[in-house]
Specification:
This protein has about 90 residues and is mostly helical. The protein has a domain of about 25 residues. Helix content is about 80%, strand content about 0%. Helix 1 runs parallel beside helix 4 and helix 3 runs antiparallel to helix 4. The radius of gyration is 15 Å and the shape is elongated.
Length: about 90
């Protein structure tokens, strides 16, 4: 029988890997004007809730993969704010 945590880790890692091209593009171009801040804030909240759920049910796969995603999404939000909103305010 397959351990459910193996499926969870695999799914979590695959969904985390999906962010790598976006992170790479942001890092190389330093452009985020085409990205929606609201979308990434909502995504952050959703992933944070999955993280809390993982803690409550003691799921290592949900805990670790969602921590990785929270870090990645935080970086994207940070870059959107720095690149787009601070430039508008001339800060």
């Amino acid at each position: 029988m397959i351990n459910p945590e193996i499926i969870g880790i695999t799914a979590g890692l695959l969904s985390t890997i999906c962010f790598i091209p976006q992170i790479y593009k942001i890092h190389k171009s330093n452009k985020t004007s085409d990205l929606s801040l609201i979308t990434f804030i909502i995504l952050f909240i959703a992933v944070f809730l999955w993280f809390i759920y993982g803690l409550l049910i003691k799921s290592k796969s949900l805990f670790y993969t969602n921590i990785l995603q929270l870090i990645i999404i935080s970086y994207i939000i940070y870059k959107i704010i720095i690149n787009d909103y601070f430039k508008i305010l001339n800060l």
